[in-house]
Amino acid sequence: MPVNFSALQHLLHNRDAAGLCAALAGWFGPNGRIAEMVRFAISEAWNPEQVPAVDAMEAAFLRQIGALHAHGAFRAGRGGWSAERAIRTAPRSLDPLARDEGPAGWSVPQVLNFLLLREIPRRARAAVVATVRDEALGLVEWVAHYRVLGFERIFVYTNHNSDGTDALLDCLARHGLVRVIHNEIDLRYSPQRKAYAHALQCLPDLYECAWAFFVDADEFYVPASGWSIDGLLDGAERAFPAHPPAGVLVDWRWYVSGARFEYAPGLVQERFRHFQPHGGFKSMVRLGEAVSMRQVHYPEPLPGGFLVDSDLTPLEKGDIWAKPASSGQGGYLNHYWSKSFEEFSIKKARGDTLAANAHGEWARTFDQFFTWNGAETASNLSPQPEALLRRVTAEHDRIMALPEVAGHVAHARALLPEMLARFEAAGGLRHIYDTLRQRGP
Asked: Cβ–Cβ contacts within 10 Å for residue 293, how many?
């Protein structure tokens, strides 16, 4: 029988300890610790030592419940989570979040934590959540783009970087542009799945937003008009006023590079202006209505929740991956997957590391750069709208002028030859490219 989260939320909201204990006992079975955890969760007495934990995960969620109360997260008129939390850590003790079985795998403290997060008042409309690794070359443009669209908060998870991404992100965080979570992880776990589960369960300041777009650093949302996120969200909320969808799926537009070899400085959205059809999408998620992002591309809604595509057409749960392409009335997510061969080699190296740690789905071959790429022709020319690009360029230049930002970007560019040299044992990157290029288009 599906868990009735609405009933649980009502009980917690009304601080009905007896009712909440009975409901949780019906879910988890008789457990003498449920009563003490419920008392802890609904009281202002926030010392986590009063509820002994049985493992590190349980201890982490009990600490967070205590911190929510200590911070006054539910009090009206409070000003929101401060900038002092702009840089934080997702510790290895939370690595099991990457297994993400949804609520079926939650502990009692996780359930109580989720219910409490949903009590946090909304103070912003939309956030972005992303995971990045070795993305320093294009990060400033990506941040500028989402700021221009009106996303009020940008949360970035980062792990195992070698190109200066960490230092650049910390610098951007100190300027108040992003909130960084350093994901300390054993790579036998999926960094992305851990990050997404951590975002939904461990970021109270994310829950101050109504919506969150889960995207990658090579994905740029382009609204159909207005150059703002408001059109997509207004449409979803107007179309379903009683109960908006748990997620809006936005289709990819797959931008190709003509299989060019060399990286060149400049905005990604100016360097690559041609796209070809390609299936795939990412999701704008209504926070508090999603219990998991284990599918990565779309959320698992609460029981009774539903998903729509960007045309606002409701989707059947079993047909998500087979859904027809949208008309684009809600905009597209421009995906710059390949870029140049030099940039692709950095993506491949990231995938090789994950594949070596039992994540074969991230393995990339050099052949894929050509097979998933395409020619740049007059028929597939689709540059970014000039009005949007001007705004992004202006914001990019403003960020680059902030103290230390340009220096971090220059450092990342200076590291590029060293990062490309890792392929010298295979004859060098140019040799690999020329050999594969000779085999076909």
From this structure: 25
Contact 348, 234 (CB under 8 A): no
Q: State the Cα–Cα distance between residues 435 and 261, nearest whole angstrom.
A: 12
DSSP states of 318-362: GGSTTPPPP-STT-EEEE--S--HHHHHHHHHHHHHHHTTT-GGG
Q: Which residues pair with 247 in a beta bridge?
A: 285, 307
**pLDDT given for residue 1 in this prediction:** 47
CB 57 within 8 A of CB 94: yes
Please tell me the predicted confidence (pLDDT) of residue 50.
75
What pairing do the DSSP bridges indicate for beta strands 219-222 and 332-335?
antiparallel
For the chain, the helix, strand and coil percentages under 3-state DSSP, each to the nearest 5: 45, 15, 40
Angle between the 386-400 and 139-148 helix axes, to the nearest 10 degrees?
120
Nearest partner of 221 among 315, 142, 133, 125, judged by Cα: 142
pTM of the model: 0.95
CB-neighbour burial class of residue 92 (10 A; exposed 0-12, middle 13-18, buried 19+): middle
